[in-house]
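Forwarding these from the shared drive since the link keeps breaking.
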Amino acid sequence: MAHPYSVREIARQAGVSDATVDRVLHGRPGVRQSTVGQVRQAIRDLEAQRLQLELTGRRFMIDVVADAPARFTSSVKHALESVLPLLRPAVFRARFHLHEQWNADECVAELDRIAKRGSHGVVLKAPDVPSVTAAVDRLAEAGIPVVTLVTDIPASRRVAYVGMDNRSAGATAAYLIHQWMGTRPGTVAVTVSNDFFRGEEEREMGFRAAMRAMDPGRAVVYLPGSDGLDQTTRLLIGEALAAHPGLRAVYSIGGGNAGIKDAFEAAGRKPEVFIGHDLGPDNVALLREGTMSAVLHHDLQQDIQRCCRIIMHAHGALPDANAGDASKIDIITPFNIPHRF
C-alpha cells in the first residue's frame, strides 16, 4: 500500500511498535494477521485524516472505542472524520477500536492498553458493567478523560455523557405507537441489543412507563439480547410472531431492523407501527419503502463535535464545553428524511 507516512506516524495511529509496522510494510514474517490488518487500517485512517496532518495548532490524539454493530460504528467514524476540520485551530486525530459482539473483558483490555499507551481522550460506547467502570476509572487516574457516547456509565469517573435523553426517547416511541394504534387491538414487541447498555435500558424504562400511563391494557412483549444484528433479531421476532398472533407493532431499541422486516414477511404479516432509532442506510431504506413508521434520530456529527470539545475543555484548551444538554431528538417519517440521507 503506497503512502507518504513515516513508520512512527503509522505506529502511533495503529497503537503498535515501530518495529511491528516496519515488518508489516516490508512483508516480513512474525506478525499476526490481525495486527497486519490493524496497521493497514491505520494507514487508511491517516489517509482519511490527511487534512488534519497538514494543519498547525494544538494537537489531540483521541481513541474511539465502541461495542456496536458495524452500521453504527461506521456512522460514528464517518461523523468524526466529517467534524475534524470544524475543530480548527485545534488538530484532532483519531484511532478507532470498533467491534461487533465484543465481550466486556475484551473492551476492558482495550481500555487498559490505551491507558498504558496514552491518549488525550476516549470516546466510549460500552456496557455499564463493573469491569468497564473500573477501566474508565483507571483511565481517569492516568489523566485520560473519557466521554461516554449514546449510552452512559454514570458510576464511573467519565467526564461527561453525550447523547439523547434515553428515557424521553422511549416515552416518545410509546406516545407515537399509542397515537397510531389508537383503540385497535395489538401486542407491541420491544427489542434491545444488550441488557447491559444503560441507554437501551433507559429507553425501555421510558417506554414502559409511558405505555403504562397512556395505554395500560395493551400487551407488551420484551425481547432482550438481540445483539442488534439482523440475523439474531429476525429469529427473535420470528419466535415472537409465532407465539403472539396479535403482535402488530414494534419498538426497536437495539436495531436489526432489516431482520425485523424479514421476520414479518416470512410470517405473511406487516407491522402496523414500527419505530426505530438512528438514520443509517437500512433504516432510511425501510422508511422510504413504508415498512418503518418513524425513526428517532439525533445528529451524530453534533454529538461527536461535543465529545471533542469536552476533551479539549478537560485539557484546558476551551473555557466551556457545554456538556450538560441532551441531544435533540428528531422524529423522522417517510416524508421528512433529510436530503443528505
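-- next protein --
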Amino acid sequence: MRIICQRVLEAQVKVNDDIVGSINRGLLVYLGVGKGDTLTDAQFISDKLINLRIFSDDEGKMNLSVQDISGSILLISNFTLHGDCRKGRRPGFDGASEPNVANELYEKVTQLIKASGVPVEKGVFGAHMHVSSINDGPVNFILDSTKLF
C-alpha cells in the first residue's frame, strides 16, 4: 500500500460537480493498494496517518499529529501510485491490486481512521474525481507499507 500524504489547510473532492468530501486543516491522502496488500498493510498505513508528527507545535517544530491538532483526513483512492514508469513511455499498472480487493482495503483504512476518532472524508472509489487543496508548507510525504522508501 502506498500513499502520498499532504498537509493541507483545506481540501475537497468533487465527482460530477458535486462535492463528495471536504476537510479543513488536516491531511489530503492519496492511497494506492498494491497486489498482495492485506489487512496488515491497512493497519500500518492508518496508524501512520493518525500518528505521523508533521504539524508544527508552538515552537515551529514538526511535533504534532493530525490527531493532536484535531484535524481531519481526506482519503482518495489512487491506483496510479502503483504505476511503473521504468520502461517505455506509458506506465504499466501490473502492481496495482484488483479493484474489488483495493476497494475493500480502502474502506478498511477509512474504518480504522474513523475508529481512532479522527474525522475522515473520502472520494468515490473508481470515479473520475477533481481534487483541490491548499497545501500547508508545502509538506508532502510518500509512504509504502512494505517500507520500500
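The CA atoms of residues 3 and 31 lie 5 Å apart. Residues 99-116 form the longest helix (18 residues).

- D.
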